[in-house]
Amino acid sequence: xxxxxxxxxxxxxxxxxxxxxxxxxxxxxxxxxxxxxxxxxxxxxxxxxxxxxxxxxxxxxxxxxxxxxxxxxxxxxxxxxxxxxxxxxxxxxxxxxxxxxxxxxxxxxxxxxxxxxxxxxxxxxxxxxxxxxxxxxxxxxxxxxxxxxxxxxxxxxxxxxxxxxxxxxxxxxxxxxxxxxxxxxxxxxxxxxxxxxxxxxxxxxxxxxxxxxxxxxxxxxxxxxxxxxxxxxxxxxxxxxxxxxxxxxxxxxxxxxxxxxxxxxxxxxxxxxxxxxxxxxxxxxxxxxxxxxxxxxxxxxxxxxxxxxxxxxxxxxxxxxxxxxxxxxxxxxxxxxxxx
Length: 340
Description:
340 residues, alpha/beta, Rossmann fold, Arc Repressor Mutant, subunit A, 2 domains, seven-stranded mixed β-sheet, two-stranded antiparallel sheet, 14 helices, globular
């Protein structure tokens, strides 16, 4: 397939240094995030466009060579099958929802082979699931989308998943998806061709300030819940961090040097709820995430989310979501199918 790797545009950035074209393969898995995929590929296109040089090449492959359906229902055509990856290509896996149900065991084996023969591989959004199944993340720092981190950590407790925007190390690239994919590629452009070109690419993407590798994915608790009370923000962050523990409200009040009554007033004033109800919803949403993405049973999920008994967990889950945990789990896993 013949492609014009240097599209026409108006903006221009003079590049005098020698160019060595870097080649990428984007491996598209079913239910991939189109947002993350396009955010990764567009900086490469823009870099070629504004310099008038073929800095990068790219193509898209799927496991079988067939088109892939994104999580938003849009089909994406590909250039071939995974077996057609060339030795000089950087292989980036694009994934999305239900990441552990979107690839075959043979795909993980093939990715491990690429890495062992010296190629750079990576995961975009939830692509780290495939890298983990390939067995190449041990001892390496990496990241994936924050929504999928709780379930991932339950499945791969021995791996060092972080909440950073992206990681580039040890021939393994990972990013959290969304605009973090643009940040990762802009960083790569800066490494190869300098800050001037990287800055122009970022501006063309309307990314005013490219973010560094170590920046967090999520907004602060204050921004998320829309409050500025420092004490309450600290308490909420503490709750989120220790959901699997037995959290006593009296202990929290003592830790943050306020009375139990003051604790109740803070939640009532700023969140219109009680601390007990707020904590319960945090736990239930964590449990829902685990049940959607893991094969953990109800007792394991309830324990991982700080519930004393499975029966108590089941009762609260049905009250909150209108469906029992068992039925929710069966429905989600039936709809995801079994690819492996």
